[in-house]
Amino acid sequence: MSKRIPYISIFLVLAAVCSVLFTGCSNSLQSQSASRTELVMNTVATITLYGEQAQEGVNAAFQKAKDLENILSSQNEKSELYQVNQTAYDHAVEVSDTLFTVTQRSLQYCRETDGALDCTIGKINDLWGFGTSNARLPSEEEITPLLVYKGYEQIELNEENQTIRFLNPNIQLDFGATAKGFAADEIKKMLVEEYGITCGLINLGGNIITIGSKYDGQPWGIGITDPNDTTKAISTEYITNATAVTSGNYERYFIQDGVRYHHILDPKTGYPANSGLCSTTIITENSMLADALSTATYVMGLEKSYAYIESLDHVEAIFITDDGTVVKTSGITDDTFEVVS
Ligand code: ADP
Ligand code: MG
């Protein structure tokens, strides 16, 4: 079992440190900075902020991430989601605003991607145990009974009562593919609205969102990890006030009998997606959308994903195929990807 800290995080931390060292404290933003790295939401998170309330902002950001983890984790027995997963079959369970919103939006992304994303594969995901000490190759006899075609259609949401009910006993919710993106958006919103932050970078295990441009007015450089050598960046993209989210087969995996079993599952088979891609990065404004699409496009494969991303406005992608070819959608140019709000 291996969990590597994505190169992207190291790159960004180093970039931030080098910039501070080499450009000097030329403006007031830069002289007031705070940064911290911590394990949260089952991943390594680094939050770096600039401005008067940088330190308070960093503290509040990690607190928010922990609060969201306590609602959305499918592994933590004390989380709200864990309880819902135990009780919601054939029984409408009233849930918090946050859990309802994340469920509603995640299921919407499942529909939009025609089930390449399916956040109801919790039971199959638990069988594999990626990211835990129980990671193992399950047998077909274990997987097959848990395969539910379009499981996301087997969930009944009642908006008025804010309840969730499972219509099939073999589904459980798992927001591994969307929760970090949701958290990144929520943290950014809080930092901007409540702490007046205009410059910063939030990295939740490769799920990156930036606030504004860098303190020197330049765009943030985001290194895309080379799947064949995770200590290197295969390309660098420049973004301002946007998000970049990567799903890769090098993030959580184990190798058995020479085969790499990774954590992005094809909901149709219950086995790791084997679509010819080994990494997908989505660049756009909304981090939850990017998180959902990075996982979904990984499952869909290059051809289908390329057409799908091209059909969406203000969404771009960088795909890396198993043979190492880097393919970028047409909106990825040498210019900065910028969201002007
Ligand atoms: P990471 O967690 O490394 O950022 P992803 O965003 O791609 O990677 O999410 C992968 C996680 O999402 C898995 O660990 C699992 O919990 C869940 N998952 C895996 N495959 C799917 C899928 N096809 N649809 C929905 N969720 C998935
Ligand atoms: Mg994802």
Strand and helix layout:
Blueprint: E1 2-3, H1 7-23, H2 28-31, E2 33-40, E3 43-50, H3 54-72, H4 80-87, E4 93-94, H5 97-112, H6 122-128, H7 140-143, E5 155-158, E6 163-166, H8 179-195, E7 199-204, E8 207-211, E9 220-226, E10 229-240, E11 243-248, E12 252-256, E13 259-262, E14 277-284, H9 287-300, H10 302-310, E15 316-321, E16 326-328, E17 337-338
The structure holds adenosine-5'-diphosphate (ADP) and magnesium ion.
Residues 177, 247, 291, 294-295 line the site of magnesium ion.
Question: How would you summarize what this structure contains?
Answer:
This protein is 34% helix and 27% strand.
Structural account:
The protein is α+β, with helices and mostly antiparallel strands and 341 residues long. The chain folds into two domains: 10-70 and 178-338, ApbE-like domains (T-fold, Roll), CATH 3.10.520.10; 75-166, T-fold, CATH 1.10.3980. 34% of the residues lie in helices and 27% in strands. It has an eight-stranded antiparallel sheet, sandwiched between helices. Helix 3 (54-72) runs antiparallel to helix 8 (179-195), helix 8 packs antiparallel against helix 9 (287-300) and helix 9 (287-300) packs antiparallel against helix 10 (302-310). It is globular. The model is unreliable at 1-7 and 17-26 (pLDDT under 50). The site of magnesium ion has 5 residues, from helix 9.
